[in-house]
Amino acid sequence: MTKKDKEFRPKARVPRGFRDRLGEELIAEKAMLERITDVYASYGFDPLETPAFEYTDALGKFLPDVDRPNQGVFSLQDDDEQWMSLRYDLTAPLARFVAEHFDGLPKPFRRYAVGRVWRNEKPGPGRYREFTQCDADSVGAPAPYADTEIAMMFADAVEAAGVPRGDYVIRISDRKLMNGLLDVAGLSGEEQAGQRLVTLRAMDKLDRLGTDGVRQLLGEGRKDDSGDFTDGAKLSGDQADIVMAFMAATKGTNEDTIRALKDIIGASDAGQAGLADMAAMAETLSALGYDETRVLLDLSIVRGLEYYTGPVFEADLTFEVADEKGRPVRFGSVGGGGRYDDLVKRFKGQEVPAVGCSVGVSRLLSALQTREGALAKASGPVIVTVFDKARMADYQLMAAELRAAGIRAEVYLGGSNFGKQMKYADRRDAPVAIIQGEDERANGEIQLKDLILGATLSKEIEDNKAWREDQPAQVSAPREKLVEAVREMLARH
Asked: Are residue 362 and residue 386 in the same domain, yes or no?
């Protein structure tokens, strides 16, 4: 065979921005999702699953151009020349579903969904093109009481996921409050659209740049440490004062924050509407035990307010962890949500109130893993070893009895070499190996090898002869007591 005729062999590699996952991470994620969705179900929400693909025009955010849809989604053209895209979130498919089945659905329609979503964006550290979302939404319920319920459920879900009370806070802001600020600051007109956008971007940098940096970006601009200059919003001194006062209005209690806001945006109709909604939410939350340590009105929440039409939520982890260099790091936001009354309107031509939340499962799992150390190693199955292939039915019967009793079990199917079987059991993290050779069979017995205890003892006993003679990790049991003996051995650990 010539070099030219050499058979092509593709390189085994995962696409950029994607990753393989197995074992402990998947088991931990599944357990976390079950705890979160149990909370959603307890509030009366029902599950909904929508296809991975949607017609691109139904997604709304990304529309087809002449050749292909805009960047941001993964798209393909069907055989009828219609563009389809992998969903980039679980909310756009919900809007399509509600519009398609509107007359037959109960109102409000309460659903939760768990699924993979895809973003055709530049990947980076901890940022993937495929990830899991876990959402709950109420469609057809107006503010503010549906929003209050979502905030409560959001807090319960974060706690159920494994974050203790005191290590998180659900931060709330409101699009109407922001509209009130823009009205009072003279930034609500179409001609101020550019200034408004730069102002919002500046406000969103408060945590990173502090009040001085934001003040500069509200004015002429700011030069960073590298010498790069960022143009500012060109607000007047009075306008900048109003914006800075708004951001400083967050107080220790929701009641005090609302009182401070009245002096700043109370002259605006939009501001008054937002304050009324926030006051109603704060009163109900407090009465039900969701005080400021769990749900806090926080005017630093800016991101997303251009999209949402009312309250907006952000789940923020408040504890610190150490990075690889021992420096303190905060994970910050691990989920969000809010009110979006215009989403179904794209299909129906009428406003349909809707509010929801989404837990960032992958990020939350990563935060807990970083704080608590490596994920708990999942126990492998009990391994039934094979000494005689002619007796395979006997070995399979043992495994079947264990499985019927709720114990993971498998028969080794890679041959009858005992050493290889033990190596396999070790790599599978098997807790117990079942052994029945001819002698054990003749006596109606089985041998159970405690592989967890054996691994511990093997590190402590240096004398192999003593190890072979003692064998405290291996015991005999009657064959008919298989399940009972395995349970007893598993109970040691």
From this structure: no
